[in-house]
Design goal:
Elements lengths: L1 E2 L25 E3 L7 E2 L9 E6 L8 E8 L2 E10 L3 E10 L6 E6 L3 E6 L5 E8 L2 E8 L5 E4 L7 E3 L5 E2 L5 E8 L6 E6 L4 E8 L6 E7 L5 E7 L5 E9 L2 E10 L4 E3 L4 E5 L5 E5 L4 E6 L2 E6 L5 E6 L4 E8 L2 E10 L2 E7 L5 E7 L19 E5 L1
Parallel strand pairs: 2-25, 17-21
Antiparallel strand pairs: 1-3, 4-32, 5-6, 6-7, 7-8, 9-10, 10-11, 11-12, 13-15, 14-15, 15-16, 16-17, 18-19, 19-20, 20-21, 22-23, 23-24, 24-25, 26-27, 27-28, 28-29, 30-31, 31-32
């Protein structure tokens, strides 16, 4: 691979932003990759050559959801299983290569919801409801051992019915907590290694907004929070965990709830009109990774990205290097992805989506077969 001498050129834009966590106007530096940049690719060493596409069994597409990869070659899902004695019940099921049949792992109680598989494939989180409220539930794979976690720290706090979010290294689970007498929710974090929970209040945020999603960095020191501002749309806010509070340092309008950490200092989010941004808190630099993005998903090592573009029913994959996506290639046509999961060794991509664009008013009328889960295996 060679680069031309032009390299990257940078355009600095002074953007005055009035934010709730700043005392006045400020500027941002936005780095835009050069459109003239050329990369010579050795055709014999293309990083994303599709080897096999596995269509998952039709039986799993009707009811349920795919949770992600348990191992480099097996995925886990939550699906309805019919029995004569109990009728329909939810079951954790596993599909292993060549993905032609399912294996039932264990039943799931009707009082649990919002299940999410940790990135390392070892733990499934969920929210269990009872007469007393909601509790954080962790299920260890493959043993099936269940643990009810004390997610709050005192009796005035209540876990909200929102999907908990894992850190990329699978150590932390972030969730939302409502405290009596407080208008804004607090952010709870459970440390699976220390087996302790802590609740953090939000500091330095005066603008009205309701937290709907939170994601902690791998070092346990930084937090990303998506806040819904009703008619004003949504923003992503970045804060530092300091003692018992999260101090906000940066915020930006977003076009979707897709947010992710690249490392302890950099995170990625989708701005308005689909622009995929990377923000670096070390130098307060905002860079454009991709224009017109519709959805995206990073590999677990943060070296590769799968994404789709607005107005196109094509799935792409590329290599993330610095502030650029290199060697991006179409890997599948005729799909609008809704969920994507890279295998731990980034040799496979699990995709769930819709075959063609449909208008919002008829989405609920779409037939189950319009949803097409499949696995792309690369050379």
């Amino acid at each position: 691979m060679t680069y031309n001498r032009t390299g990257l050129w940078c355009v600095t834009l002074a953007i005055l932003l009035l934010t709730g966590c700043a005392n006045g106007p400020r500027s941002e530096t936005i780095i835009i990759p050069s459109k003239e940049e050329n990369h010579t690719v050795d055709e014999e060493r293309r990083p994303f050559q599709v080897k096999t596409i596995y269509r998952l069994p039709d039986s799993i597409t009707d009811q349920g959801e795919l949770l992600g990869w348990a191992t480099p070659e097996s995925v886990i899902g939550l699906f309805e299983e019919a029995s004569r004695s109990e009728g329909l019940s939810l079951q954790f099921q596993r599909l292993s290569a060549p993905y032609e049949s399912v294996e039932t792992l264990q039943a799931v109680g009707n009082n649990a919801m919002y299940h999410h598989l940790s990135p390392d494939g070892k733990t499934i989180s969920g929210v269990a409801k009872s007469a007393e409220g909601a509790s954080l539930k962790l299920i260890t794979y493959p043993s099936g051992e269940e643990e009810m976690v004390e997610a709050t720290t005192d009796s005035t706090q209540q876990l909200l019915f929102e999907q908990p979010t894992w850190s990329a290294d699978s150590q932390y689970v972030s969730y939302l907590v409502m405290e009596e007498g407080r208008r804004l929710a607090s952010i709870g974090v459970y440390d699976t290694q220390a087996e302790k929970a802590k609740v953090y209040r939000l500091k330095g945020f005066d603008m009205a907004g309701i937290p709907i999603k939170a994601k902690i960095s791998d070092d346990g020191r930084m937090m990303l929070i998506v806040l819904d501002q009703s008619s004003n749309g949504r923003i992503v806010a970045m804060g530092t965990i300091n003692g018992s509070v999260i101090e906000f340092q940066y915020e930006h309008e977003i076009g979707s709830d897709q947010i992710d950490w690249l490392n302890h200092d950099q995170f990625v989010f989708q701005g308005m009109e689909g622009t995929l941004y990377e923000y670096d808190r070390r130098n307060q630099e905002l860079s454009i990774l991709l224009e017109r993005a519709d959805s995206f998903e990073f590999s677990q090592d943060r070296k590769y990205i799968a994404y789709s573009l607005n107005g196109k029913d094509t799935l792409y994959a590329g290599k993330l290097q610095g502030k650029n996506i290199l060697h991006a290639e179409p890997i599948y046509h005729g799909i609008i992805p809704s969920d994507m999961y890279w295998s731990p060794d980034h040799n496979r991509l699990l995709v769930n989506g819709r075959k063609t664009y449909v208008k919002p008013r008829v989405v609920k009328e779409a037939k189950p077969m319009d949803l097409r889960p499949f696995i792309i295996e690369f050379e």
